[in-house]
Amino acid sequence: MHKLVSPHMLRFHDWYETRNNLWLILEYCTGADLESLLKQDGHLPEASVRMFGLDMLAGLKYMHCMGMLHCDLRPRNFLVDEHGILKIADFKMARKVPKVPLGDTPLDARGTPAYMAPELFLAEGVHSYTSDLWALGCVLYELRRGSTPFGDSTTMPLAELIENINTKEPVADKDNGRRASSSSSSSSSSSSSDAALPAMSAKLADLLLWLLEKAPMNRCD
To answer: Could you tell me the pTM of the whole model?
Structure first.
């Protein structure tokens, strides 16, 4: 963590050890995290999503250029400093790009289910740059619409969440984005519920559909 030095990464200052604990001294961000912001406001204007999204992408690009994956991107792991700049935090699951499949790795060591890419639920799956980008897409969707795109394992059975991640289209608005207009029958059945959600521009919808491609090789990279 001390090697990650960027305006969009939470800064590590020092550490020390006592008899029972290891203490880290980290940068203090007065703006709390995006999860707290969502609890307060419900969802954000698209202009704010765009501004925060640029910060997220800058931080993630820096990590990826350093050969590192975050593996647990979600709103609570983005902090806001006193200048309104977003910083990636919580690197306990961060790792170098792995070369072997997940195999029997427990689910709680793979990430947070609501933000995990479809391949991460498989034994042959592997964390990658594109799985981080999938999680970024989930966070951007949540910032705009106030909920995760496929559901949450705290409010639905895990099996149902995984089924949604594998089969459900994230954006069903028929007039939003070139790929959203050709959504499958499963997505069109949910278009009426999407209509009640905060509006989303065609550009944002199209970006989310690119980030949330089911197949990793077709996903934004």
So the answer is: 0.84
Structure tokens at 72: 């647990």
Nearest to 35 by CA among 155, 165, 153, 139: 139
Contact call for residues 107 and 196 (beta carbons, < 8 A): no
Q: Do 111 and 136 form a contact (C-beta atoms < 8 A)?
A: no
Architecture of domain 30-218: Orthogonal Bundle (1.10)
Question: Is 72 a known active-site residue?
Answer: yes
The domains of the chain are located at: 30-218
Which region among 34-38, 92-96, 190-194 has the lowest average model confidence (pLDDT)? 190-194
C-beta of residue 167 within 8 angstroms of C-beta of residue 186:
yes
Q: How high does pLDDT run on average in the chain? A: 84
The answer to whether residues 133 and 208 touch, using CB atoms and an 8 Å cutoff, is no
Gyration radius (Cα) of the chain, Å: 18
Highest mean pLDDT: which of 127-131, 184-188, 194-198?
A: 127-131
pLDDT digits (tens, 9 = 90+) for 31-49: 789 999 999 999 999 999 9
Cα distance between residue 117 and residue 71, in whole Å: 10
d(CA 196, CA 193): 6
- Mean per-residue pLDDT, 175-191: 41
Active-site hit among 14, 41, 55, 72: 72
